[in-house]
User: Fold this.
Amino acid sequence: MSDDTYDLDLGKVRRALDGLGGVEDQVMALKGDYLADYERYKGWNGDKDASDDYYTKTQPDDEKTVRTLTGAIESLGLAVTALRSGLLESLNSVKAVHADVTELIEQQGRIADFDSGDDNQSGGKH
Assistant:
């Protein structure tokens, strides 16, 4: 059952943001690594200038595989970036609410102090 409270460990959120930043970097490196590896095997199925049946049959799938894998890597990168952005936005929202609430509490404290000063001057009677 909920106790109607909202708790957020800012340290955990910051660590998650840092971790996602590392994942973003790894995803970007992954695409580069894949394309570099692909260059080593490019042309495995023949030469387009001296094409044969094997090249003609396999080349469309080879091209599709490269497009699909690079697209998947890019999509993963976009997803991680979006997740990190959303988490950062949530963290900033929580910080803003905290700052607003802190200011309101301080204002109420000043009002209470002012009101209590008036009561003491008038003998403290209510």
Notes: Helices lie at 10-41, 53-121. The two ends are 42 Å apart (CA to CA). The longest helix spans residues 53-121. The mean pLDDT is 85.
